[in-house]
Automatic annotation (TrEMBL):
Family stated for the protein in its record: Belongs to the ARTD/PARP family.
Pro residues composition bias: residue spans: 172-196
Keyword Nucleus in annotation: no
Organism: Notothenia coriiceps (black rockcod)
Encoding gene (name): LOC104955840
Domain PARP catalytic: 1-177
SUPFAM superfamilies: ADP-ribosylation
This protein's name: Poly [ADP-ribose] polymerase
Amino acid sequence: MRGFDIVEIERIQNKALWEAFQLKNKQMKDNNNGHNVTEKKLFHGTKSEYVAVICHKNFDWRVCGVNGTAFGQGSYFARDAKYSHSYTEDSHVKSMFVSRVLVGDYTRGSSSYRKPPSKDRGVINLYDSCVDDEIKPSIFVVFDSNQIYPEYLLQYKSTHPLVSLVAASAPAPKPVPAPTPVPAPTPVPAQRPAPKPSVTGYQSSTSTYQMHTSPYRPSTSSYRPSTPSYQPSTSTNYPSVNRTPRFSPSPPPTPTPKKSSDSCVIS
């Protein structure tokens, strides 16, 4: 609903009412051949003087008063909070319950019903609740309080007229189109820098190879065979044998003197 502000939301925790609600749920399930029972969360507007008794004793149309009997003499619940709001008192803070209701199998109600009608014209197989419209129900009437568990209590008040006026005159926000997603840039492989030449290049050693100032000079004494050759001892008596010497070393040739101003000739 518009034009109202929530003052407080209270969650009701009543163990006795909750256990009775669960027991009724099981009984209805057994009567329905083991199938789950339809459960709805519905609104119920009431006066502030009945809030405490509902929280402690649950709903009872005989205690809470008769706000409407168009579809039966039971406790009324609505699908829309706007309908339940019309049954609250004209006070600064209003009260409304959000309840869990086992509506089960329902049919269209009547003002003369004090309990749900029979499904087969008998007295045992009855409907579970009554509604205003079997196709699209918006109002539900329950005759057994164990089918109800008051879960939340809403306390609310009307919005200040100036606040409502400002809210009504405020322009509706314009939808902002979502920005077009920008494709992520393709990663570019990093280029490796070209190798740089070494700062210190090849440097020759400071001490270079230097030849001796004095050129090669052969030794003053060249190779000469010794003058005394091998001679057998005269005192040893060997048989006289004529032998031809196979090799007689010849004296080495005299080296040719080099013509140079710095060289010397060895004779």
